């Protein structure tokens, strides 16, 4: 039974990279905050959470997306419930662009950080709309279309915009 639990955990972790990477980034943020000098100011908490969101959920997540779409396109398309297509390569290179912006935004200016949230968020929200369309029109309920991937396409932009707002607010103070 223990082996089955470990196999299930590994399978869930690998088949939900956006969620896994988000959780790892959040855990890294929490560890950094635990070891930061106390008392913690709101601005420094927001800075840590936002920085590591950008590094992990934008930079690393989109780098992984690039790798999957470009080098493992057939497997990725199958996971989504689609046939492999030349568009996989285009999505992969768009993801590489988002990854680079995410890495630059990790220690960058507010404007760079806004760009790192806004571009990928529109991509993800558009992808969520595409997933809904595929669920309704093609009855595509593959895990890569209607599972955690779909929900992360909605949740990550919300988190990004919330962190962007609080970052802007703390900079004004």
Could you explain the architecture of this structure?
With 173 residues, this protein is mainly α. It has one domain. Helix content is 86%, strand content 0%. It is built from 8 helices and no strands. It has helices spanning 2-15, 17-35, 42-71, 73-80, 87-106, 110-137, 143-146, 148-172. Helix 2 packs antiparallel against helix 3, helix 3 (42-71) crosses helix 4 and helix 5 runs antiparallel to helix 6 (110-137). The termini are far apart.
Strand content: under 5%
Model regions low in confidence, pLDDT < 50 over at least 5 residues: none
Q: Please, how many domains?
A: 1
The share of residues in helices is over 70%
The biggest beta sheet reads: none
Gap between N and C termini, in Å? Answer: 53 Å
Class based on secondary structure composition and strand pairing: mainly alpha
Number of helices: 8
- Cα Rg: 17 Å
The quaternary structure here is single chain
Shape: globular
Order of helices and strands: HHHHHHHH
The tally of strands reads 0
Question: Average pLDDT value?
Answer: 93
Please sum up the structure shown:
With 173 residues, the protein is an all-alpha fold. Helix content is 86%, strand content 0%.
Key attributes of the depicted protein:
single chain; 173 residues; mainly alpha; 8 helices; 86% helix
Describe the secondary-structure layout.
Blueprint: H1 2-15, H2 17-35, H3 42-71, H4 73-80, H5 87-106, H6 110-137, H7 143-146, H8 148-172
């Amino acid at each position: 039974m223990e082996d089955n639990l470990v196999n299930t955990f590994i399978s869930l972790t690998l088949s939900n990279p956006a969620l896994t990477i988000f959780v790892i980034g959040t855990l890294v943020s929490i560890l950094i905050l635990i070891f930061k000098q106390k008392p913690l100011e709101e601005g420094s908490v927001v800075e840590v959470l936002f920085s590591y969101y950008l590094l992990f959920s934008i930079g690393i997540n989109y780098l992984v997306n690039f790798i999957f779409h470009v080098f493992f396109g057939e497997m990725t398309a199958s996971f989504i419930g689609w046939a492999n297509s030349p568009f996989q390569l285009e999505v992969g290179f768009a993801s590489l662009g988002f990854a680079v912006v995410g890495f630059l935004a990790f220690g960058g200016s507010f404007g760079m950080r806004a760009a790192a949230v806004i571009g990928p968020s529109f991509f993800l929200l558009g992808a969520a709309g595409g997933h809904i369309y595929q669920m309704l029109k093609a009855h595509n309920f593959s895990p890569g279309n209607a599972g955690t991937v779909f929900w992360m396409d909605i949740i990550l932009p919300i988190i990004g915009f919330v962190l962007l707002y609080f970052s802007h607010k703390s900079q004004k103070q």
